[in-house]
């Protein structure tokens, strides 16, 4: 069963694509195909979503994603080739994730939550964020 924030009406779709393990938890992320078809309504069918994803027309955080099941989560930016539209997934009005339009200057900025902070060999600090990224300072 699909979560309510995916934008799929109850009993409208018989089967739904699931999220594969990735940078965001399953209960707070949307698969790429569902985002295109049901949330953004840029394509009408799953077949159209597959062709646009496999052709490399979808970028998530500036990286081309060619998986229907890729998890798109909090504060991720979505770019669609062929259009000037860019979106960011944010919490809004009590819903977990809602896409909002952003401009090109905002696409390189991303708020992240620090999940872990450890000291590694050499006295350097490693910081882990909510989306699976890490930096060493």
UniProtKB/TrEMBL annotation:
Organism for this UniProt entry: marine metagenome
Regions annotated as coiled coil: none
This protein's name: Uncharacterized protein
Biological processes annotated in GO: translation
PROSITE patterns hit by this protein: S4
Record domain Small ribosomal subunit protein eS4 central region: where: 84-136
Listed GO MF terms: rRNA binding; structural constituent of ribosome
InterPro entries xref list: Ribosomal_eS4, Ribosomal_eS4_central_region, Ribosomal_eS4_central_sf, Ribosomal_eS4_N, S4_RNA-bd_sf
GO cellular component entries: cytosolic small ribosomal subunit
UniProt key word Ribonucleoprotein: yes
Residues of the Small ribosomal subunit protein eS4 N-terminal domain: 1-26
Keywords, comma-separated and alphabetical: Ribonucleoprotein, Ribosomal protein, RNA-binding, rRNA-binding
């Amino acid at each position: 069963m699909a979560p309510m924030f995916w934008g799929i009406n109850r009993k409208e779709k018989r089967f739904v694509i699931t999220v594969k393990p990735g940078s965001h938890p399953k209960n707070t992320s949307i698969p790429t195909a569902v985002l295109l078809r049901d949330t953004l309504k840029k394509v009408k069918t799953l077949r159209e979503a597959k062709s646009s994803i496999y052709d490399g027309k979808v970028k998530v955080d500036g990286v081309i994603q060619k998986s229907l099941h890729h998890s798109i989560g909090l504060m991720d930016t979505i770019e669609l080739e062929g259009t000037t539209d860019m979106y960011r997934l944010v919490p809004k009005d009590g819903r977990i994730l809602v896409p909002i339009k952003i401009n090109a200057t905002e696409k390189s900025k991303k708020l992240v939550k620090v999940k872990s902070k450890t000291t590694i060999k050499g006295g350097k600090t490693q910081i882990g964020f909510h989306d699976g990224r890490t930096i060493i300072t």
